[in-house]
Amino acid sequence: MEYKDTLVMPKTKFPMRGNLPNKEPVRRQQWEENNIYEKVQNKTKGRPIFILHDGPPYANGDLHIGHALNKILKDFIVRYKSMTGFHAPYVPGWDTHGLPIETALTKKKKIDRKKLDIVEFRKMCTEYAMDQLDNQRTQFKQLGVRGDWDNPYITLTKNYEAAQIRVFGEMAKKGYIYKGLKPVYWSPSSESALAEAEIEYHDKRSPSVYISFEVTDGKELLEGGEKFVIWTTTPWTIPANLGISLHPEFEYAVVNAGQDKYIVAHDLLETVSEELGWDNPEVLKTFKGKEAEQIITKHPLYDRDSIIMLGDHVTMEAGTGCVHTAPGHGEDDFYVAQKYGIKALCPVDEKGVLTEEAPGFEGLFYDKANKLITEKLDEVGALLDLKFITHSYPHDWRTKKPTIFRATSQWFASIKDFRQDILKEIKEINWYPHWGETRLYNMVRDREDWCISRQRTWGVPIPVFYGEDKTPIITDETIEHVSKLFKEHGSNIWFEWEVKDLLPKGFKSEHSPNGTFTKETDIMDVWFDSGSSHEAVLLEKEDHRRPADVYLEGSDQYRGWFNSSLSTAVAVTGKAPCKTIISHGFVLDGDGRKMSKSLGNIMQPNKVLKQLGADILRLWVASVDYQADVRISNDILKQVSETYRKIRNTVRFMLANTADFDPKKDKINEADLAEVDRYMLHCLQNLVSKVREGYDKYEFSTVYHEVHNFCANELSSFYLDFAKDILYIEAEDSSRRRSIQTVYHEILITITKLLAPIIPHTAEEIWEYIPGVEEESVQLTDVPEAREVAGFENQLEKWAQIMHVRDDVLKALEEARNEKVIGKSLEAELTIIPKDEKTKEILTNIQNLHQLFIVSRLNISDANDRAKSYQYVDILVEKHPGEKCERCWISSETVGDDKDYPELCTRCATIVKDHYSEA
RNA sequence: GGGCCUGUAGCUCAGUCGGUCAGAGCGCACGCCUGAUAAGCGUGAGGUCGGUGGUUCGAGUCCACCCAGGCCCA
To answer: Are A251 and A265 within 8 A, CB to CB?
Structure first.
């Protein structure tokens, strides 16, 4: 007789290896065909709502690993909430306007925009964006992200644009929208504003001049008559000069050079002296930049003040440390002047020609004006030096001609009017990690007004009309009308239709006595688009509400979406659009370096899916502390795969040993379970509580480590290992065996649910193998709460001690193995000498201790000379003198007692006689 | 240059109020098993807690500076 045939061996078709790259797509298709998203929504309908509102990715290009990190984290949360008492719909979104798409179209698709009319071009942009969206959607789904993929929100749709117009209108109504000047890259050759992406740098020859400004009011600090020295390569901006900027912390020196006293940064004195030919200038006094604030100098050409201002943009890298400031011709200049309430002056028209605001030079092209202005400066004695240099200078990428900075008319949102409200709301938000609050707070606190104008075509038009006297017209009536029109026809009509058709019928204004109007041609900053999603999505989508529960984006979005969403939401509603903000870090390579093409260290999600599978990538996401920057490499993924394997095989073992288990018939009442089984159930509850806590705090690495450790320590190495002596050996429906199976069954169900949000494909696969479960998908179940295990009150200490003793036993066995006393542990007979009474009592009262420790016999004794001392007990390991039972492999003196089965111990002989003698 | 952040064994992570807290799992080495087998079990080695100063009776834990890395600005 082959005794192996009388064993109840594990039996399952659940494969040892996941084969994820091949099986996951099938699984996803099955979900899609079964409308799993809808089923979950139907099941959870009526529960409290939990909204994780998706920040829209930009619809361009393939997904990178950062996209994957972001969407997978969101999926963890949504899936978990759906399984813990909430109704958590998830509507993905896309950001679809903006320059990158315009650029992609002109570059990749070789579209010449000049040859197309705006409407035509915008239609192509729409098409391109929708293609990109489709591509990204496919890839997101491949990550196993569950959501309403058929009905995403898209910023270019009519409804969205209409809602966005309302946000703009509401802000305008509150007086937050105003028109002002701001310098932008301007190309005189194409007579248009340029985006930064349309700038190329080429060498250009420019004059390099040093110019002096005489102090007329030195306040307490200077006497008057001293001359600040500035350096510039654009003399044509001197007519627009309104001040001089110093660095507040730099040291400045008043020096005697020739007949005059000049002021330059002390550290630059030497180089400036060299440039200007000063011979051993005498330092008369020094002062800090901040002491000179508000000192007044005279503009060298005009009868006008030029104020000393302070700014951090001043550097020691070049020049004199005193920076010529023309707020109409430089961004830094603009912001510094803004702080001092000085408005931009821009005496240059769109062709680059100086206007009558630059008396003496009107009608001159800026580059030509350089010469005349320099001559004039020389005439008045303000020119200290002139030479020419060649330097890198911004040029128009199309015309290849030099560009200038030029203040133009722009629309702004006045952040300062509701800054305090935003700051207050920032403090109301729950931040993960906590420092997010400080980061956004500082950013909003220091932020300038928001320029929402873009001189582009691919975006939502700024819905403003102008009267005949050029007065901007924004009224409730016009806003509502345009919003309605956009909702019906889309925003293309702004470019397609006559102005009169865009206005309400019979619209009249005191600014247009003849009834004619013009329309704004600027479009809105794309951050205004996505920043309006609280209105377009939270407010309008079914089952949604504002504020949302969670916003979760990369840490670059403090400046981006977090900022713009908060700004528009506070402006419109006075409240933050969400209760909690979570931010994640960036994905770096294995060495913690940023991924880049040049370093060749880019990890593509697509490749990971094909090589390892989505669940491995998802498990990686769960394994890292995502709130800081995270690392990924082949080695790291290999490690994650090992964890996956461990979890999978542990589960497989339990599935294989519950194949014959019918919970309806075979389940044992909790109170009747063996003690060690109740102990394991208790450990499981412990796991549930820790894992739930991890999810609740959005700390998924806790989930990962806890589940893995439970599989490795409690299960694989202990509970599954010793249980083989019961599962394989005892009769199939013996109560001891059913007791173990009852616990396995609960562990299986519980662990599968706990893992479902993280590795949904695998969890679903496991679910199919668990006997007796009724729900068609684990996604349609709820995660249990941790509970008290019957009959396990105050037993924890006892079991902790047993496990301690086990550690000692394992050490002792290993030593015996090394000394060739035994091979496997079943060959051993143990004699344990407890070091204290309490331990003795525990060890004597536990049943089948030898079975838990997987040895053939275990004696508890009071003393033994040959025993070795370990941490908790003394132990003697000997080779068991008995014969090995051919069936259970345990050594026993009873082998041979039963004459019918001379190779078996009495335990096995009885089992075989009772259950297998017929066979 | 500024704002915010990260730096504990080869890797991924724990370390609550400063006082057995230097830990876990993986990997690695060595061994066992061959009735979870492209599995399973055991033991072991590994860390000046980024560096340097300081506060303290005592510091991964508090402070300062520095180094490396990241995001966002300039």
So the answer is: yes
